[in-house]
Amino acid sequence: MLWPLVTLLVVVLVTLAVGWVADQVLQRVAGRHPEAPVWALLRRCRVPLQLVVCCSLLIGTRPIERLFDLKGDDAHHVILLALLAGVGWLAIRIVAALLEAFFARYQAVADDPARVQRVRTQLGMTRRVVSALIAVVTVAVMLLTFQAMRTIGAGLLASAGIIGIVAGIAAQSALGNFFAGLQIAFGDTVRLGDTVIVEGQQGTVEEITLSYLVIRLWDYRRLIVPTSYFVSKPFENWTRKDPGLLGSVLIHLDHTTPVDRLRAALGDFLPTTPLWDTLEWALQVTDTTPSTIVVRATMTARTPDDVAALRFEVREHLLGYLRDHHPTALPRIRTGEGE
Question: Which of 185, 214, 237 is the last residue of a domain?
Answer without folding.
Answer: 237
